[in-house]
Amino acid sequence: MAGIINGFFGGGGGMVLVPALSTWSGLSEKQVFATSVAITLPMCICSALVYLLNSSISFHTAFPYIIGGLIGGFIGGTLYKRVPAPFLRRVFALFMIYGGIRSLL
To answer: What SS3 state is found at 55?
Structure first.
């Protein structure tokens, strides 16, 4: 399911992976978030390759987002141990709500 969502929307597999891993894996909350990111990376690479083969990618447009994502990923990974799990849960919930509202509008 996460792969299908990632393929359709170019990312966002975490909105399926985080609840699924929380329910069925027995991992701590922080491990769930980190595992979700680790699982999402190969799905994003696969989706990007499909888009590339279909000539659907504009690297000129994507470049600033790639750089921002790399910088944000580095900062997030560095701060990971300092951020309490309840805060991560709330931020994730806010992003889910925001994404849902954006999808409806």
So the answer is: coil
With left for phi above 0 and alpha for psi between -120 and 50, is residue 26 left, alpha or beta? left
CA–CA dist 74, 80 (Å, integer): 10
pTM of the predicted model over 0.85: no
Instruction: Please state, in angstroms and rounded to a whole number, the distance separating the CA atoms of residues 91 and 85.
Output: 10
Amino acid at 39: I
Confidence check: pLDDT of 10 > 60: no
Q: Give the C-alpha distances (Å, rounded to integers) separating 23 from 14, 16, 36, 91.
A: 14, 11, 13, 19
Domain segments of the chain: what residues? Answer: 2-104
Q: 67-79: buried (b, 16+ CB within 10 Å) or exposed (e) per residue?
A: eeeeeeeeeeeee
Residue 83 dihedral angles phi and psi, to the nearest 5°: -95, 125
pLDDT tens-digit map of 34-86? 888 788 778 778 878 888 888 877 878 888 988 998 898 888 888 877 888 88
